[in-house]
Amino acid sequence: MEKRRASSPPPRRKATPGDWLLAFPQLRERGFRRPIGRAERIFSATAVALLVLFAVGWSWSIARARAGGDAGLAPATATITAALTDASAPSVAYLTDAALTALATPARGESGKLRARIQAGGSPISPILADTIPSGAVATFSSGAAAESTSTLAAPNRPGIWNLALKIGNAIKPLGEFSVITLRPASEEKGGRLGLYYIGNWPAARKGRPGVAYSPPTGFIEVTQQNQNTQLSEHFKLKDFLPHDQQNVWPKYIVLDMKLVDKDELVLQDLQEHGINPAGVRVMSGFRTPQYNAGGGDPRGRAALSRHMYGDANDIYIDNDGNGQMDDLNHDGRVNIADAKVIQDAVNRVERAHPSLIGGCGIYSGTSAHGPFTHIDTRGYPARWIGTGDS
Asked: What is the rounded distance in angstroms from the CA atom of residue 278 to the CA atom of residue 294?
């Protein structure tokens, strides 16, 4: 009898994820769906409703703003809104740049060249930022290792020179090349001194012409060897306004009105427009303490209530050749008071264009101690004179 050859088993097929359905043909034919619970249905319906409400509200707000021409919106708010509604804007990083650009513009002054703001510690910084910062944003102040953050836009309480940054979400953007300077209160002055620095005493408070304050200052900028090179504007540093006495005493304390620096920058801009290079500007005399005003240097021509003591006056000249004297600005081959008059002419033009910066301007001839110079201040009313000695 012939023996049958045993047949080999068929090759095994690899299982697939859908094979389990083969065992349940009723599911395969009808399709399988996971049971949906009642809680999940309620959640889904609520989420859809919220999304619809948000979309309707957002569309209504945009339509209303466009219909009203953005009327009533502050400039900063309008700029930020434009950034939010611009489809091409790269979200948070763009918003931070837009916010800083719009909010910080007033801090640059009428010249657009200021790089610092001086104010009492703890005071609102709304003069720096023209509008409230966006919701959820935080202003951060840093000075060396110290840092403070606030959502209420108030300057740090401690005296110092601070860098300002705005944080929105995960993006943080510094206000480039700009410092917030907080003052040391004048109440800390003892016996005419702050620390080792001798200041003296201001004359008794009195009222001059309308709008001019002769009250003693309420605070001082603390100037150290480390921060004296702080840039106040395009052409001026903090050290440019220091008195010339007590050379080895640190820290020093000064009073300075940034309106003066703003006016100086506008004068330099005007000179440049009239063909004079302003790069060599020098401050011959900035702030003076009462004790220095009374007897330091050459006191001839100084007023007992000199505006130098109140931080809104300085004496300047242009020295591009670096010889320590006024340059021949009118190109007549001589250096004399006529060159100081060239700067005064620029002051006159600036005051006509910027009446908020009106003040005094005197021209001085050279002496054995110094060359010609021009006094500029922001006292609040016009005054012109020709003087000798120091202003």
From this structure: 31
Q: Dihedral sign, CA of 20, 22, 26, 30?
A: positive
Of 303, 305, 318, 332, the C-alpha closest to 371 is 318
| Domains of the chain, residue spans | 71-182, 183-387
Tens of pLDDT, residue by residue over 33-75, are 555 566 667 766 676 666 666 665 655 655 555 555 444 444 4
Q: What is the pLDDT of residues 242-287, one digit of tens each?
A: 999 999 999 999 999 999 999 999 999 999 999 999 999 999 999 9
What pTM, to 2 d.p., does this model score? 0.73
